[in-house]
Amino acid sequence: MTRATPGERSLEDWLSYISAQHPSPIALGLDRVLDVWQRMGPPALPLAITVGGTNGKGSTCAFLERVLLESGYRVGLYTSPHLLKYNERVRINGQDAADASLVEGFEAVEAARGDTPLTYFEYATLGALAVFSEERIEAAVLEVGLGGRLDAVNIIDADVSVVVSVDLDHQSYLGPDRESIGFEKAGIYRHGRPAIYGDADPPGRLVEHAQSIGADLMLLGRDYRYEAHERQWDFIGRKGAKRALPTPALRGRWQLKNASAALAALDEVADRAPVSLGEIKRALMTVRLTGRLQAIPGRPSIVLDVAHNPQAARALADGLGDMGFAERTYAVFGILADKDAGGVIDAMQGRVDRWYVSAPESERAARADDVARLLEARGAEARRFATITAALESARREAGPNDRIAVFGSFYTVAEALRSLR
Length: 422
Hints:
alpha/beta; eight-stranded mixed beta sheet; six-stranded mixed beta sheet; globular
């Protein structure tokens, strides 16, 4: 594809263009992206919080964004991947960025990169940072894409960094076990700055790395904690306690951990971005995030969740158990071939009565026949469909009013279901 010319390309044109600028979809490393970022003449972000981890990143970012917005700050949020449209990845003051702003960001990257090849995600990250600069945001919340140490977001020296959780995923890039993955995730920590870990049992190599670089490591259960009560909860951090907090609008018991990690991070930058208890309470009640234990009203009920690894699937199974009675649960399931489909199935099998299997719309998708064979080997009933939409339509026809349909396995699976439902 020919080099892009400013002013001549739509957002869709740009997305096609940046997809073709590197021979590999993933090429970890900071040299190329940092070089282009420096050539862009980067302004310092007034306040930056980076959020990494295996699961829970999106929810933690949503909590951070909502509290800062309720507190009156001009907030930029960068997340990935998107579900329905690319604009979801870059948000300004709680709204998806406009096409024109994203195009201007890509033009700024293109003007600076010269002959340096960038991956789609690297281009996206630099473009988002350019948009934040143009929009004069006061606080940036940046979700790490893959790993941490070599992820493009790690060009930013954040004021506080959060690793929400560490579990098995992306082993071909990050290493074969939690220790290796934990080391990669810990790469977003910085010397002398708050480094938060948001789950129990941190990997030893994550702790060792934080200590070796002189980061101010804060562990859940040691340096901050939460206490759950009936219909409310308390957060206890290094800067004091926040009592009688409302249950988060995001469903799932694990959201208290994610919200606690967000509050711990905000405590550490309170001298620059103070927030009040009332603003925190309003944020917890109003936070929204598509595709995370998201219930679609109606009968049968439909629950959408992007769970795509065993840890996330275990959380989804627990969440379904907490959501109340359903006579039967039908699963609409599609997963990528590089994921642990068997582990996800094992985590969910006790909650599912019948499986509706399809390959989501991705070149990386696992074939429906292969997934069905995994299910059948475990004694499960599995039906194959050409598309996620067809699987969902069949499940809706066959489910009774007191049944439940759970759609999960990948972002692509949930995205197709959302388009179908809308």
